[in-house]
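User:
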Amino acid sequence: MPDLSDIDHPDVNVMLSIVMLYWSLHDRLSCEKPDLSKQERLTLIRLSQPRRMGDLARAMQALPSTMTALTDGLEAKGLVTRRRDPKDRRAWLLELTETGEETRAELGEMLKLALREETGLDAADLQQFSDLLLKIRSHIMAKGLPKGLPF
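Assistant: Predicted structure:
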C-alpha cells in the first residue's frame, strides 16, 4: 500500500480519494461484467426508462454517432431495442429488453456491494456520502457539464 502520509493538504486528499474510488469501482465492475464496456455499463445504468438516443448522448456527453455505435453493440447483445418515438417520429427511443432489465439490476447490485466493500462504509455513512455527492453533482451540473468527461 503506498504511503500517503506526506500528503497534508485536505483538498489533495479529497481529489486523490475520489480518483482512487472511481478506478477501484471501474476495475471491479470491469472484472464482474467483462463482456460489457464501461460505456455500455453506464448506458444500461442510465436507462431506467425508455430515452431518446439524442438525450442519452447529451447526458453522456457523447456524439450521436458514438451513441449509435454503443446502441448497435447493446442491441447485438440483446440488451436494448430501438423504436420510433411516438411523439416525434424522427427520433429513436432506446429501451431495455427483459435481458437488459436483468443485467441493469445485476449491475445495480454489483455496484451496491462494490461501494460497501471498496469504501468500507456502512449503510448510514454511504447514505451521507451519497447525499454529499449528489449535492456536488448538482452544483457542477448547474454550472454546465465539464468538457471531456470520460463517459
